[in-house]
Design goal:
CATH architecture: 3-Layer(aba) Sandwich
Number of strands: 7
Strand content: 15-25%
Distance between the termini: 31 Å
Helix content: 40-55%
Number of helices: 10
Order of helices and strands: HEHEHEHEHEHHHEHHE
Strand order of the largest sheet: 3-2-1-4-5-7-6
Shape: globular
Structural class: alpha/beta
Amino acid sequence: MRPDAVRRVLDAELTAARVRRGGAAPRVLDVGGGSGVLAVPLAVAGCAVTVVDPSPNALATLHRRAQEAGVADLITAVQGDSDALDQLVPAAGADLVLAHGLLEVVDDPKLTVAAMAGALAPGGLLSVLVANRFAAVLHRAISGRLVDARRLLDDSAGQLAGPGEVLRRRFDTEGLRALLTDACLTVELVQGQGVVADLVPGSVLESNPGAPDALAELELVAAVTPPLRDIATRLHAIARR
């Protein structure tokens, strides 16, 4: 598996959390992680994972995946909305809280971030992965959707109402950083995911045996290099309590 900037940061944090806990399993809270795409691999890696999601169907898929992977005893599924997080999970109980693909769709991102901050143990880390407004502008312009590109550029919230639009908002680097600092969290890193990887044609990778590895290494460097970071498809921020 080729290196990924987000995964590398999370792996390092989980290693540090295990050390802080004297070798005990890191406690992970995955908010909106329903079907277990993140939760099951984390449990396989030895983490104790709680997943909060409003969808019973997604949680059923999580249960099936956990059983197939033999980690059902390490995963706790809780049905509920992120805006009621303080009623669903213990305060200050998680070493790592994940909110990947969540803040774009919740009713109130400030409320959600505050609730997740309250779920963090002292010294714990919040990991947020969100859609990038500027990347959405570029991708629509490249595909010929120029009116939509201009609308996204003009709308600071990154909203684009219309058929097939599922996101309520998109973020930029400064807006994401401000959202986290307003919740009294210390932002340690904002990096990109999908900086150049989403722009390279598949034909380039298929025709050159060394291209996939070269692209992965380029992606790692671009992820933390402004202004390339700031036009990544997704923005990843980590913030500590």
